[in-house]
Amino acid sequence: MIPACLSDEWAFWPEREDLSAEFTRLLTAAQEGGATIAECLLMARRIRRGDELSWHREWKSLAEANRERGDTAFAAGHLATARRNWLRAINYYNAAALPLDVSDKERGALVVAMKGCARSVLRTSSPVAEVVTLPWLSGHALQGYFVPAPMTGGPAPTVICIGEPGHRKEEFLFKLAPYARERGLSMLAVDLLGDRGDDVLDEIVRRRDIETSVTTIMDYLSARTDVDFGRVAILADGWSSSFVARAVVQEPRLAAAVCDGGLWDLHERSFMANRIMLHDAGLAPGPEASLLARDIGCPVLITLGDDGWLKPDRARRMVQQVTSHRPGVTLKVFTAAETGAAQGHADNPSLANEYIFDWLASQLGAQPARYA
After folding, report:
1. pTM here?
2. Domain end position, chosen among 124, 153, 187
3. Considering the domain boundaries, does residue 1 fall inside one?
């Protein structure tokens, strides 16, 4: 949780909501190993307000300092310290790239450096993790990081962690991988950007079939002998669409899902209906809604915060309508009193991730790692 005393700091760029939100994310990443609070506050003092290039330069400098410390520790045989520094460098490189245009060559260089740190983390992990390529669209393959569970003596239950278009899988290495590992779960971290540059994002977002990416991922996992394919779940991180929910409807091989359950699509449809002055638009699901939460065949967990974009009472009404037709949909609301109440649980992702991965472990029958 971000201390109240830092409120003025993490709203340091009130004229740039995106940079303020990114600074908040960086601070909360400290409790996951993706940053240190001292370094973040140092950057807040150094960055000149309203100067995007200053933001870029300072976070890049900090990323390079962490990468160099990681490389030095690795050369000295201190693998744990090396991994910690590389994980922080991943996050700082990502922050440095934020204000740059997708066509900027410097942004491309930052992404390459970030992926280099991620590969260093993977090859020094135990068991060794790997980069995987999954053919998807013509000329566009998905790229993922497969992080195996600690030695289980056989195929392990696995969770697919996938972000919205534009979100990067590298973040999952510090944000989600430890939670999976502690519970005896393998993790496949994937993003929709694939192995091409950020300039493909608009093309991906415009597609009406991005949910087919999940079928591609499932086909890949079905061929791995170290995956218990009867116990595969999916986690949609930072949902701002229902593409994963649509994918789950079409993918009966999934054993469980953490996603919006179609809430986003329903919200947008309700908003548009009200805009054109339809009576009783509300949240009552029409035939389209049944294609999402009502038709998902596996257990579903929906988490949201009291202070998020969708008010809990509206979500509860929708879930009640769905569960009257089929059980298996769980709604967890995080209140302001307990934290985790911001949109995407941005104020305390740890609390949400603990709940989410405990739920996943229960659904998949995972056994905690012996050392945890």
Report:
1. 0.89
2. 124
3. no
